[in-house]
Every structure is written in C-alpha cells, then in structure tokens.
Amino acid sequence: VEEFEFAMPLLGGVLIGIASAIMLLFNGRIAGISGIFSGMLFKQGTERKWRTAFVIGLIVGGVGLKYLNPEFFTNTSGRSLLVLVLAGLFVGIGTQIGRGCTSGHGVCGIGRLSMRSLVATFVFVFAGMVLVAIVQPFYQ
User: Fold this and answer.
1) Is the dihedral of CA 64, 66, 72, 77 positive or negative?
2) Which residue in 97, 106, 104 sits closest to 125, CA to CA?
3) Phi-psi domain of 45 (left: phi exceeds 0; alpha: psi -120 through 50; beta: other)
4) Domain containing 15: what range?
5) Final residue of a structural domain among 74, 104, 127
6) What backbone torsions phi and psi does residue 11 show, to the nearest 5 degrees?
7) Phi and psi (nearest 5°) for 18?
8) Better-scored residue on pLDDT, 100 or 122
9) Which of 12, 21, 45, 49 lies 20 to 30 angstroms, CA to CA, from 6?
10) CB 105 within 8 A of CB 115
C-alpha cells in the first residue's frame, strides 16, 4: 500500500480554486468544463471563441505535462483507448443531462454557496459510490 501524499493533492486543489476564482473575477463565468465544452460545439461568435481557447488551453496543458513528465499519463486501468474515450463521452452526456459537472457544481457552485450545486455534488458522489459498490466485485 502506498503512503498517502498530502501536499500535492492540496496544491492541486488550491490551484484549481485559484483558476476558478480568476475566471469568475475576470470573465464573469464559472469554470464548468462540460458547459464550456458544449458551448464550444454549439454556440456562435464570441461565445464559441473564448470557449475554444479555454479547451485548447486544457489540451495544451495536458500535452505539455505529458511531455515534461510522461509517467503521469500511464494507463494503469488495462482498458483500451476506445473504452476510455467511450467512457469519457458517456460522462460528457451525463453532465449535460444533469445540467453540470463536478467542476461547475463541486468547485464553482459550492464555492458560491449554491444549494443546487451542493445537492448536485452530493448526488454525483453518492451515485459514484453506489456504482463502485456494484461494479467492483467484477474486477477483483
């Protein structure tokens, strides 16, 4: 069993919080990734431009980190790239059905003391726990 590291997850959480606060402060928008991504696909004009720039920044940041530190991106799940992409698409569809994602509700919404976001985040976490309890026995 690996020893739990405290500092790096804490730093990551702080950086996500700071980035979300900066986006709200300077852009007047929350950093709900599923909403930003769907808006990039379906909105027009200026709305599409800033959203596209945001998504490109996420991709460039990920690719840059993979280049600097490749071991962060090893696929330890044993799943094929196709399965991982399909899983990501299903998550994206689910966030649209649920009217938001963990970044929009869990980070930005709770930070703004939104009751709707608190309930949504509770439902996300609870549903995830139930799903793990159901699926985990098949992977042992």
Assistant:
1) positive
2) 106
3) left
4) 1-30
5) 74
6) -60, -45
7) -65, -45
8) 122
9) 21
10) no
Report in angstroms the alpha-carbon separations of 4 from 15, 72, 74, 129, 132: 20, 16, 19, 20, 21
Render pLDDT for 69-78 as a digit per residue (tens, 0 to 9): 888 777 777 7
The C-alpha atoms of residue 23 and residue 114 are separated, in whole angstroms, by: 18
Are 69 and 122 in a shared domain?
Answer: no
Residue 43 DSSP label: -
On average, the pLDDT of the chain sits at 87
Block residue for tokens 């098949």: 138
H or E element at residue 29 = none
Split at pLDDT 50, 70, 90, the class of 80 is confident
User: Between these two residues, 64 and 111, which has the higher pLDDT value?
Assistant: 64
**73: CB partners within 8 A, 6+ apart:** 65, 66
Find the length of the chain: 140
Sign of CA dihedral 51, 105, 124, 140: positive
